[in-house]
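hey can u check if this looks right to u? its 312 residues, i copy pasted from the old doc so theres a chance i mangled smth
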Amino acid sequence: MNKITLLFFFFSFLNLSASKIYTSDIANFWIAFDSVATVSKSEQKIKFLNELYIDKASACLKEYIESKNLTAEDWLKSIEQYPKFWKSVRNKTLKVLNHKKELENIFILYKNSYPNFIEPDVYFSIGILKTGGTISGNKIFIGTEMTLADSTVDASELIPFFKNYFKQSKNVVQMVAHEITHTQQKLIPDTSRTLLNSCLIEGSCDFLAEILLDKPCTMLHVKYGTEHKLDLLRRFKQEYTNKDISNWLYNYKNTKDEPADLGYFIGYLLSKEYFENSTNKKIAIKELIELNWLDDKKLVEILQLTLKKYNL
């Protein structure tokens, strides 16, 4: 895709949702990517990545770069280590436009479901295979190289996690809906997190995305968790007060026999049971979004509701 086409892609998308959704990082990245391929020296490649991508970064990409201490060298390393992946994912990242109506609809659904909704800004960007989505205040960062990848992408150079991740039945709309809920939550410092509140923080976002979109969450951790829920709940019951969350969350580099992030499923299941036991569903949505993550008594009550259902 040439520069003119990329620029058209960028400007045609700016009109989406009153300029609340931004895609300039995608266009800038591939312009930088093509420029890198024209030179042989590393310093020249780094110069292109800095000038054409990092220096032109969107507000959210700048914050993401700072929070992760990323440099042009990090992108160059990824580009050179995984050439098959980057070549195969390119056109996928440019297909955000295909989801325009669905993305616009998320904001409408959220406004209708949650009276205190504050509309976030969504930035579709290109990372280095570190995250599919994250937030910074009221900004959502979507790593399209991960989120738009699917089973047709060449993941042969990557670690096994990505090969499985790209095969999952997922979509960018589900990811954005998940991250929107994070922007509405009253988040707490990592030092105040326990396994229980951490799983609910993440899993409630999966569940609320499912409710808002009226589509089942198809991520692998939910599919596997549903099939093994009793065993997982027994294990979780023994560990939920722990500060160490590494057995349950953000553990994609270490899991072998099970999918990563099964804590997301636990939080999803607890949220689902809470919702289904509520007589007023709209109030239940508000309560799940506005949970006080430091209210151990309330969170344990939510856990016990699920454990009681399954006689645990």
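The two ends are 56 Å apart (CA to CA).
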